[in-house]
Write a structure and sequence with these properties.
The protein has helices at residues 2-24, 31-40, 45-62, 66-108. By secondary structure, it is an all-alpha fold.
């Protein structure tokens, strides 16, 4: 019982740490640096602005960050714990029902 409590406390501490780390982790993209490299490569200023802006939008909208993965891990862990509890309860109910059936059969015989 004490081990289960300690294990749960450790899991909670790790979870809190990961949540804080996820908040602090952000994806950054140096649009100015990218813009300047495009201009140096021969792009016009308009083309370079459009490219930098488009790439920044793609990165912000579609790129999965470490924080996103941590949040997904936390949600999946929570769902798995709920599923484990439900399965344990169902298994216990089936075990109790089977014992009751065996006891009834023993009385009949």
């Amino acid at each position: 019982m004490a081990n289960a409590f300690l294990t749960e406390a450790v899991k909670m501490a790790i979870s809190e740490y990961r949540q804080q780390e996820a908040i602090m982790t952000a994806t950054t993209f140096d649009t100015l640096g990218y813009f300047e490299k495009l201009k140096a490569a021969g792009f016009t200023e308009e083309q370079a602005k459009a490219q930098a802006s488009a790439l920044r939008e793609i990165i912000e909208e579609r790129l999965v960050t470490k924080g996103d993965l941590v949040q997904m891990e936390l949600r999946l862990t929570s769902e798995m714990q709920k599923l484990e509890l439900r399965m344990t309860l169902k298994l216990g109910a089936m075990l109790a029902a089977s014992i009751a059936i065996v006891a009834a059969l023993v009385k009949l015989l």
